[in-house]
UniProtKB/TrEMBL annotation:
GO terms for molecular function: 5-amino-6-(5-phosphoribosylamino)uracil reductase activity. The lineage of its organism: Bacteria, Bacillati, Actinomycetota, Actinomycetes, Micromonosporales. Gene3D superfamilies: Dihydrofolate Reductase, subunit A. Residues 3-162 form the Bacterial bifunctional deaminase-reductase C-terminal domain. GO terms for biological process: riboflavin biosynthetic process. It holds the Pfam family RibD_C. This is Dihydrofolate reductase.
Length: 181
């Protein structure tokens, strides 16, 4: 069975919405190993809209951008409003989200990556479908809202699997959701 891995950038004060502060701390080696082990992306509508506005405009001939991967990889979008995605190789999941993702995980292939953390992630954690959550903890204070609206009231426990510390101060903490007790 394929693993579903959520990979989320976060500041010390818990902000996840604005990744512009990540570049001085980015770990290209870890990012490349993560994408090389995944042949699909799963996104909610907001993440899809943000990615689809940026990645197709990036230079695919420069391997350091990651654009060749993001523009060619199979992309699945959880949305009830997106009907005709314009970004190459994108499919909108139809029907029940949990059933669609369970079917996707049961199919042949490598890991499935999910970026961002919102209502799609919380529903999939509650359903027991997320195998790992990788928090890229950046050594900055953004000063924004610490908890996004979709996470208010969401509760889950996690078990630490691994940590990687980058000399820039970035910490990548990998967790596995614990089963509900």
């Amino acid at each position: 069975m394929r693993k579903l891995i959520n990979s989320t950038y976060i500041t010390l004060d818990g902000v996840i919405e604005n990744p512009m502060w990540t570049m001085p701390y980015f770990d290209a080696e870890f990012a490349e190993s993560q994408t090389s082990n995944a042949d699909a992306l799963l996104m909610g509508r907001e993440t899809y809209d943000g990615f689809a506005a940026v990645w197709p405009t990036m230079d695919e001939s420069d391997p350091s951008t990651g654009a060749a991967y993001f523009n060619s990889v199979k992309k699945y979008v959880a949305s009830t409003t997106l009907t005709d995605p314009s970004w190459n190789n994108t499919e909108v999941l139809e029907g029940d989200l949990v059933e669609a993702v369970a079917k996707l995980k049961a199919s042949e292939g490598k890991d499935i990556l999910q970026y961002g953390f919102g209502t799609v992630t919380t529903a999939l954690i509650e359903a027991g479908l997320v195998d790992e959550v990788r928090l890229w903890i950046h050594p900055v204070i953004e000063g924004g809202d610490s908890v996004s609206a979709p996470l208010k009231g969401f509760k889950a426990s996690f078990e630490l699997l691994d940590t990687k510390i980058n000399p820039t101060g970035l910490i990548i903490a990998t967790y596995r959701p614990k089963a509900a007790e």
